[in-house]
Amino acid sequence: DYHSYLITSLDLNTVNLEPFQYGGTNISAFRLVNPDNPLVRQTVKNWTSIDAKQIGKKINFAYDNTSVIKSETALMYDAVHLFAKALHDLDSSQQIDIHPLSCDNQDTWPHGYSLINYMKIVEMRGLTDVIKFDHQGFRTDFVLDIIELSPSGLRKIGTWNSTQGVNLTRTY
């Protein structure tokens, strides 16, 4: 009782916290993936509705609940979609020639820098909300939920972002 913990893992919501719910300890954390986001819910629904017969093997889905999506999974999903969008936009703006490259040679793909620049200017929504980069390629304007363990489970009590800082919405 009467202790406070700030968990720095972005995946606290994937851990079973039931043994700690009624102990009176203040457990708070940050969360990157909001399980109430409609895009997250739809994506999880799509993942779990794959027909196992179509791919010919049994599948054990661990993502039948939006609260178990790990940040790493969501970030990888967003990265692939960002790459695909940038590649599509690049292909729409100029003729992309495809020729084989060898890993042993010093040759590079002539459109590589253009693709990177497209990825820096693209702004899109993903499982981790808005995806936007600065001119150096660092992600900007992302939002972290501040969550707290209560007797009813984890609940959102505020947000943090790089431009506005902390905004607590907790009600007593």
SSE layout:
Layout: E1 4-7, E2 26-31, H1 38-48, H2 52-55, H3 71-93, H4 112-121, E3 124-126, E4 129-131, E5 143-150, E6 153-161, E7 165-168
Helix pairs in contact: 3-4
Helicity level, as a percent range? 25-40%
SSE-based structural type: alpha+beta
Helical run tally: 4
Question: What is the arithmetic mean of pLDDT?
Answer: 86
Q: DSSP strand (E) fraction?
A: 15-25%
Number of beta strands: 7
Low-pLDDT segments: none
| SSE succession | EEHHHHEEEEE
Largest sheet: 5 strands, mixed
Task: Write down the Rg.
Answer: 21 Å
**Straight-line distance between termini:** 19 Å
Report strand order across the widest sheet: 1-2-5-6-7
Explain the overall architecture:
With 172 residues, this protein is of the alpha+beta class. 28% of the residues lie in helices and 22% in strands. The protein has a five-stranded mixed β-sheet, with no helix packed on it. Strand 3 (124-126) and strand 4 form a beta hairpin. Helix 3 crosses helix 4. The radius of gyration is 21 Å and the shape is elongated. The relative contact order is 0.17. The model has no long low-confidence stretch (mean pLDDT 86).
